[in-house]
Every structure is written in structure tokens, then in C-alpha cells.
UniProtKB/TrEMBL annotation:
Protein name per UniProt: Triosephosphate isomerase
Localization (cell): Cytoplasm
CDD domains the UniProt entry points to: TIM (cd00311)
Catalysed reaction, written as an equation: D-glyceraldehyde 3-phosphate = dihydroxyacetone phosphate
Annotated active site: H103, E175
Keywords assigned: Cytoplasm, Gluconeogenesis, Glycolysis, Isomerase
UniProt keyword annotation of Cytoplasm present: yes
């Protein structure tokens, strides 16, 4: 059976940048820089800070923009006495379709472990959100040469207990920590090595059809100048873009990567 091609996904993780006024401007500029055909071909998504989401919803819905949006994190809990947390239900109510889970900055600065990341994946799925599950190794692990096992272990832990149908609703992002915000991009071959191993692991632990359908992104210093060679890899289906997604024209160029390939 030939599986359906995976639609490329470009997700801009704004991290803690841009207030709601700036968010409004960036989303409008981004939409104006891409044609309907381009936005249909390549799924384009922004992940702004929570405080921007209502504004982004208003501009996307009001102008019927073909841009998706979501959050950078969510609570593993449904509701209750969790000061400062935001639930999946709240995000879904704002029209979010995606939520990043287990980003290395959350794992590092907020001590999120695999169990918590797994609970957040579950919470996202429960509320109809697509989790973008981030995995990736630090420089020490890369230098030891155990990066593939590190990433597949993180994948296993985060997806533990999910049905094949639930796994099919997850997007995985491979983000080597040493390539984030450093200008040091993994080579296309580095990205392929881990993305390919993640897909092979899904085939082993879930099934081949699910593995073939799951989109796997690469993240870490992606720019318009390097996106095409990364996207040319067979197991890379998109990118999770940090710094370069804060500039509408640059992010639009990244989303237009098929044109860089076909010339
Ligand atoms: O962490 C990232 C996206 O989630 C990558 O960030 P940069 O693109 O700024 O390296």
C-alpha cells in the first residue's frame, strides 16, 4: 500500500518574543507574503506566547487566513488550582490546533522530565490539539555518539501508552540542543540520521503505516538559506523555526522552500 504523502509543515516558535500588537503585524505580513497556493502546499503555523493568542485568533479568523496557530506549552492538568498554568481546553477554545510539548528550553529551564512530557502529550490529544513533541540531544551526548538512542528513548517515553490512532495525531520535532539559537545547523545528513531513526522506531513500536504518516520536523538554526537542503531529506517533513520566524519575510521564504528546490 502506498501511503499518502506527508504535507510539509513549517512552524514558527516565537518563544518569549513579540507582544500582541507585534503579533498582529507579523501574522498579517506573513499571510500577505504567501499565496493561497503556497499556503495550501506547505502548512504554515505560528506558535506565539499565550498573551498573543487571542489577537492571532482574531486576525486569522477575521481575514480567513490560511495560517494555523498554537501555543508553546500546556498544563498536563485539566483544570483547577495550578497557578500560572494554561489548559489544553483553554487553547482549543481559542482555536489553537497545535501545541509544542517538551521543548528543550522547557526540559532545561523548567526541569520537565519524560513523564511530564508524556502527560502533556496526552493532555494535548485529549483536547483535540496536535502536540509537536520535541526531542533532541545536548552537545555532550552528541560528542559521545549516543544521540540516536537518546532521541528514540525520549520518543518512547513521551508516547508510552498511546494507541496507534493517538500516535498518528502527533508531530515529532528533532531539535539538537547544540543547534538551537547558535547558528550551528546540523547538516542535512545529521537531521536525516535522527529523523529516519525516529520513524524506524515508530514502525517498530507502533506500526509501519502509522510511522509512514507521522510528520517529523527538524529544528535548530533553520533559515531560508539552509531549509531546502534539509527538506530534501526523505524523513524530514518540515521545520520548527525559532529566530528566523520572527521576521515575516524570512519565515515566508522558508515556507516557500519548494521553489528553492525547483528553482
Ligand atoms: O528552538 C527552536 C525552535 O523550537 C530553534 O530555534 P532557532 O531556529 O532560533 O535555532
Amino acid at each position: 500500500m502506498v501511503s499518502a504523502p506527508r504535507r510539509p509543515l513549517m512552524a514558527g516558535n516565537w518563544k518569549m518574543n513579540l507582544n500582541h500588537l507585534e503579533a498582529n503585524l507579523l501574522v498579517q505580513k506573513l499571510a500577505a507574503s504567501l499565496t493561497e497556493k503556497q499556503l495550501t502546499e506547505v502548512e504554515t503555523v505560528v506558535l506565539p506566547p499565550y498573551t498573543d493568542l487571542r489577537t492571532v485568533q482574531t486576525v486569522v479568523e477575521g481575514d480567513k487566513l490560511l495560517i494555523g496557530y498554537g501555543a508553546q506549552d500546556l498544563s498536563p492538568h485539566v483544570s483547577g488550582a495550578y497557578t500560572g498554568e494554561i489548559s489544553g481546553a483553554m487553547l482549543a477554545k481559542l482555536g489553537c490546533t497545535y501545541v509544542a510539548v517538551g521543548h528543550s528550553e522547557r526540559r532545561q529551564y523548567h526541569r520537565e522530565d519524560d513523564a511530564l512530557v508524556g502527560a502533556k502529550v496526552q493532555a494535548a490529544l485529549t483536547h483535540g490539539l496536535t502536540p509537536i513533541l520535541c526531542v533532541g540531544e545536548g552537545l555532550d551526548i552528541r560528542e559521545q555518539g549516543t544521540h540516536v538512542a537518546h532521541c528514540t528513548d525520549q520518543l518512547d517515553a513521551a508516547l508510552k501508552g498511546l494507541s496507534p490512532e493517538q500516535v498518528s495525531r502527533v508531530v515529532v520535532a528533532y531539535e539538537p540542543v547544540w543547534a538551537i539559537g547558535t547558528g550551528k545547523t546540523a547538516t542535512p545528513e545529521d537531521a536525516q540520521e535522527v529523523c529516519g531513526a525516529l520513524r524506524a522506531r515508530l514502525a517498530e513500536t507502533v506500526d509501519q503505516a502509522t510511522a509512514d504518516g507521522v510528520r517529523i520536523l527538524y529544528g535548530g538554526s533553520v533559515k531560508s538559506s539552509n531549509v531546502a537542503s534539509i527538506m530534501a531529506q526523505p524523513d524530514v517533513d518540515g521545520a520548527l523555526v525559532g529566530g528566523a520566524s520572527l521576521d515575516a519575510e524570512e519565515f515566508a521564504k522558508i515556507c516557500r522552500f519548494p521553489e528553492h528546490i525547483t528553482g
